[in-house]
Amino acid sequence: MTPPVTGAIWSALPLPALMIGVVRGQETIVDCNPSAEQFLGLSRRGVLDRALAQLVQMDAPLDSALERCRVNRAPVFVNDVHLTIGTRAPVQCALQLALIGDRPDLVLVLINPREIAGKLGQAEGIRQSARSVIGMSQMLAHEIKNPLAGIAGAAQLLSMNLRPEDRELTDLIVEETQRIVKLLNQVEQFGNQRPPDCGPVNIHDVLERARRSAAVGFAAHMRITDSYDPSLPHVWADPDQLLQVFLNLLKNAAQAQPKGGRIRIKTYFEQSLRVRGEQGQDVALPIHIEVIDDGPGLPEDIADDIFDPFVSGRENGTGLGLALVSKIISAHTGWISVDSKPGRTVFRISLPRAPQAPQQPTQTEYA
Least crowded by CB within 10 Å, which of 173, 212, 213, 294? Predict the structure, then answer.
């Protein structure tokens, strides 16, 4: 089957677009645009002449939608479809189907991923709430630490006049005040995070530093594997702050499985995600890092708020670790999201690439 000639508009479409036709009695992809290549993670050659069901799994009957489009000769819209590509987490999409001109044998399928837009809106809400929480928490931390020091000092003075067997309560007062002061110090550290000192960074160098530290410490009981794309360009980031981010994510994955399990670190290049920077500029985030664990997943009641300050899925957790991760990534004009279900939790970070140095013009020698 020969698809119609495609040109600049087809290549420039920002949404994944597929042409579907019936070949040998099966709905088959006969063409795709560059956005669809990126979305599917395959080249055009790897997509053509394959059934869509071979590449993606979805929870909607696409065959019946294609038939309605052809029979009624009218566009068909399918909302809230969950597409799964390979081992990736499902992506919520809207599908738009339409005939191509006077070709009833060909149907254009546009895929509109809604995951990115929804979660970018959620990320903006997190940034707004974090700003207000930071200001209030810093003020409270400062005001609470002063009387705590007096309480601890008074308890220590009281203990000097007590018998050893009666000092249990005063010792408890001192221990608890020290614990609260330690928590308040973490709150102040969360608020005093310095702006990132960005430069070109090899993301795999940072990931390996975090991996080695985790493997000999808090994640010694876990099996950590990787799937790196060695061709990735450098990211534009602060390496020390990125190290703090990945250590936090690895620690969360390890704490979710105290009896052991697997953590997988994956990197890849994909250009479809763009965000608006603080100055209103359009920023591409083509470099993606995933930290994947096979633990029990996030509790459903906090899954949508996991990056908010003081929200924690662990008993006695402070809820500042992931909030700090989100704050650092936001300061890098990056994006962080999480997809979680029992047996598979994926934290995905997307970052800008480092600016490319302008090429110096070569001088031509004349005899």
Answer: 212
Cα angle 21-25-31, degrees, rounded to a multiple of 5: 20
Residue 245 DSSP symbol: H
Write down the residue that tokens 């200001």 correspond to: 135
What whole-number distance in Å separates Cα of residue 41 and Cα of residue 58? 17
Q: What is the pLDDT of residues 159-182, one digit of tens each?
A: 887 877 777 888 888 888 887 777
Q: Which tokens sit at 228?
A: 């790196």
Tokens found for residue 319: 């809820």
Sign of CA dihedral 232, 233, 235, 241: positive
Rounded-to-integer distance, Cα 267 and Cα 289, Å: 5
Residues 321, 301: contact at Cβ < 8 Å?
no
Is the separation of the CB atoms in 171 and 179 below 8 Å? no
Asked whether residue 259 carries a pLDDT value surpassing 50, the answer given is yes
Single-letter amino acid, residue 16: P
Q: Which residues does 112 contact at the CB level (< 8 Å), separation at least 6?
A: 15, 93, 94, 95, 96
Task: Kindly report the backbone phi and psi dihedral angles of residue 45, in degrees, each rounded to the nearest multiple of 5, phi listed first.
Answer: -65, -35
**Cα–Cα nearest to 222, from 290, 291, 293, 317:** 293
Cα 14 from Cα 345, distance rounded (Å): 28
Apex 349 CA angle, 37 and 125, nearest 5? 110
- Position 115 confidence tier, pLDDT thresholds 50, 70, 90: low
Contact 69, 48 (CB under 8 A): no
pLDDT at residue 367 above 50? no
